[in-house]
Amino acid sequence: MRLTILGGGGFRVPLVYRALLDDPAPAVSEVVLHDTDPHRVGVIAQVLARLAQGHPAPVPVRVAESLDEALAGAGFVFSAIRVGGTAGRIRDERIPLSEGVLGQETVGAGGVLYGLRTVPVALHIAERVAALAPGAWVINFTNPAGTVTEAMSQVLGDRVIGICDSPVGLVRRAARAAGADPSALADPARTDYDYDYVGLNHLGWLRSLTLDGAELLPGLLADDAALASFEEGRLFGGEWLRTLGALPNEYLHYYYFRRETLDSVRDTQETRGEFLDQQQGGFFTRAAAAGGPDEAYRLWERTRLEREETYMAHSREASGGWQRDSHDLEGGGYDRVALALMHAILGDSGTRLILNVRNGTTVPQLAPDAIVETVCEVTAKGPRPLPAAPLREDQLGLMLQLKAVERATVEAATFKDRSAALRALALHPLVDSPAVAARILQRAAGEG
């Protein structure tokens, strides 16, 4: 089975390939990389070559020059593109900050700007998949993942599935903090674990975690020491988590503590995008000059660790300042989520995974075709969202408002509709001003 990776020059592609090499039941016979930047994909191909060294049966890797060549014959398509590169991300962050609102890659005005730029490209990819590989499953990790998956589903229906490593990372960290075995959550044969997670991409809540029918979450929420042992507990604090009665996705820190986060980033000399632009730009330059796979891999591994250690640094600063520990760095591993999803479809296993899929009846207040992020059972027919407990009014309110923003973003990008773009920006709770939204939109248009 051929796996095509769009955005094949992406920095985290080696994580996917390493997972494939470590797979005890290999299903991928070839990896095809495609990227619009031949320099970057050439460097990543060297890193993959180093990973394959000494492996008894390495998965062959091929670089395709054109999108159509990459898609032809694919069984799975993994989409992790970045339209506009890190330069575009820097604009997405700096323009909102200049107007006094949060600038972030997927959240707030920055996420809307990124979506406006990305949706047309994602739709073109979906159309080429439908034409050249109609039987393929598309696994989308391109941010903003909920918005992009919603756009692509208009062409591909249920054959596009959005993934994110934040939810499964939260579930694993919560299980460990509650004294349970987090590795059991990934075992499809284990039926003694259950969990309830629902929301949108980067806007969801873990509301139940059970072992042998016993609910673990209330005890965890009551234990300040246990909460202080993992990332989300430190981000939000015990008092607020007990008030919510749930564990929020880490990105909800931008909503619940918007003033504190904005204060920590407003006067920053370097946004996250600027940091990654320098860090990864330096990596690709040095690795290209290194002259071989060994040095390219060494540079990649060192850069990867630095990237993970600095993840969400402004939110950590806003919540008191602390360093990520080894369990935080493990995260959910989007490479492992993608591999588990492929295995579940190919093996018809019924594995439970948290995915971005069409809503159906999961959240009755949303349209059936709206993309939500929730627990699914995955078989050869694809993912089926499992029933979820009713949402609290505060959770539902945020979901409804953000879904309106996502859909307006898709409408604006699809039909080049400025009114829809203005609506998407102005209705976002982290912008909440039509005047500010209009200025952001004008500047973004002027700067490309």
Structural class: alpha/beta
Work out the helicity level: 40-55%
Distance between the termini: 39 Å
* Counted beta strands: 13
- The proportion of residues in beta strands is 5-15%
Number of DSSP helical runs: 21
Shape: globular
Outline the biggest β-sheet.
7 strands, antiparallel
Radius of gyration: 21 Å
Describe the structure.
By secondary structure, the chain is of the alpha/beta class. About 50% of the residues lie in helices and about 15% in strands. The chain has 21 helices and 13 strands. It has helices spanning about 15-20, 40-50, 65-70, 85-100, 110-130, 145-155, 165-175, 215-220, 225, 230-235, 240-245, 255, 260-265, 270-290, 295-310, 315-320, 325-330, 335-345, 395-415, 420-425, 435-445, and strands at about 1-5, 30-35, 60-65, 75-80, 135-140, 160, 195-200, 205-210, 215, 245-250, 350-360, 370-380, 380-385. Strands 7, 8, 9, 10, 11, 12 and 13 form a seven-stranded antiparallel beta sheet that branches. The protein has a six-stranded parallel beta sheet with strand order 3-2-1-4-5-6, with helices on both faces. The longest helix has 25 residues, at about 110-130.
Reconstruct the topology from this structure.
Layout: E1 2-6, H1 13-22, E2 30-34, H2 38-52, E3 61-63, H3 67-71, E4 76-79, H4 85-98, H5 108-132, E5 137-140, H6 145-156, E6 160-162, H7 166-177, E7 193-200, E8 203-211, E9 214-215, H8 217-222, H9 224-227, H10 231-236, H11 238-244, E10 247-248, H12 253-256, H13 258-266, H14 272-290, H15 293-309, H16 313-318, H17 326-330, H18 334-347, E11 351-358, E12 371-379, E13 382-385, H19 393-415, H20 418-426, H21 434-446
Parallel strand pairs: 1-2, 1-4, 2-3, 4-5, 5-6
Antiparallel strand pairs: 7-8, 7-12, 8-9, 8-10, 11-12, 12-13
